[in-house]
Amino acid sequence: MATPHHQIHIQTTPNDHLNHGSLTDGSRPHHNTKYNAHHVQDSLTTRVTKLICAVFLSILFTVGLVTFILWLGLRPHRPRFHVQQFSFPSLAEPNGFSTAQLTFNVTARNPNIEIGIYYDTVNLTLYYWDQVIAQTPLLFPFYQSPKNTAIIYGTLSRPQLKIDNARWTQFLAARKQGAVPFRLDVASSIRFKVSTWDSRRHKMHANCEIGVGPNGMLLASDKGKKCPVYFT
Fold it and tell me: What string of pLDDT tens digits covers the 232 residues of the chain?
């Protein structure tokens, strides 16, 4: 007699699938370990790269700052000129035309701390408006040390003063208006000395515009006046 067959039905649950998957996927823990190691390596590389960049930028900033400070300290500054005194007393005298004479005093200051200035011959040109009325050399070549002031002074009279009757009449007419305008042009070629290095020559002009009052003296507003300096 045949033996009867019995079928046994097995029900699975969601947990059974998870357990089955975890048992069959034996390579997953190993894969996670490799991924974590690679992630740590990338993180260390990024940190080292950022550190190197930060150090490089810090060095670059420090070098740039030091260079800028040295440039400020060693950059040559132009000499500074001021009119201290200018008088033309003959303008107030009855016979001033025949005895015309004037005096002037201009200071030249080297404002640099570590830089000296070599001057070639210093020349003076005196203008009435745009008309030249006197030209003369003032100083022979000289060296001006840092933070030093040179005094440029002198007296002009005939025949250096080129004044005729027509020009004198113009002076007197301006005097009646309250001031006679003059312009002093102090010119020289200069070189800057930085330690053992000398710059090229620069043609320098100091342009001093002044006024002389009815008494023949420098106007109070122009005493100590700074003269613009330019190179040509």
Answer: 444 554 545 455 555 544 444 444 544 555 566 555 556 566 777 877 878 888 888 888 787 766 655 555 567 899 999 999 999 999 999 889 999 999 999 999 999 998 999 999 999 999 999 999 999 999 999 999 999 999 999 999 999 999 999 999 999 999 999 999 999 999 999 999 987 888 899 999 999 999 999 999 999 999 999 999 999 8
Q: From 200, 190, 198, 195, select the one nearest 114 (Cα to Cα).
A: 195
CA–CA dist 28, 11 (Å, integer): 27
- Residue in the structure block whose two tokens are 């070639």: 120
Question: 193: closest CA among 109, 87, 115, 131?
Answer: 115
Pair of tokens at residue 67: 């260079």
